[in-house]
Amino acid sequence: MLPASLHNHPAEIPGAVEILCASLRREGKEVVLAYADCGTYGALDELCRRLRVERLAGLHCYDLLAGDAEVAALLEDEPGTYLLTDFLVRSFDRLVARPLGIDRDPDLVEDYFTHYRRIVWLTERPDPSLEHRAREIAAVLRLDLEIRVVGPRRIAKALTELFRRGVA
């Protein structure tokens, strides 16, 4: 498994994927990649072609959760939209607040998030404790929170198709 923190350094994703694929193949395992492009700007696709590894389609996990048309519409409606997933709500402190330093210096919120106007939380399974945490994040970032229930169906279908292609 690859660490989620790689999303903070997308240029490192292909190298980490290559190392993991080589390790898994040495163990005799078949490999598929449950990653979208995630900011690699095609480098992950090139690696997957070279290694003959199937990956999830899409530019990022938001497309996988809500659909690329829905995400495009959200960003067209308000380009200053910060997207959250259930995973990001759970790991916001570890993946966003601490790396950016806003946990230590709240004034940095203005520097990093000044051009954002809202947060849209794409939730697979609404949960009161996650909603409470999403509202806390919105308060810290000083942004309005919009909740979109996307459900697990789209990501489950994408994963099923990925495994079908990867082992065929």
Please provide a written account of the structure:
- With 168 residues, the protein is α/β, with parallel strands linked by helices.
- It has 2 domains: 4-55, no CATH class; 62-149, no CATH class.
- Helix content is 53%, strand content 12%.
- The chain has a 3-stranded parallel sheet with strand order 3-4-5.
- Strand 1 (32-33), helix 2 (43-51) and strand 2 (54-55) form a beta-alpha-beta unit.
- Helix 1 (13-26) packs parallel to helix 2 and helix 5 runs parallel beside helix 7.
- It starts with 12 loop residues before the first helix and ends with a helix.
- The relative contact order is 0.14.
Write a concise keyword list for the protein shown above.
168 residues, alpha/beta, three-stranded parallel β-sheet, 8 helices, 5 strands, 12% strand
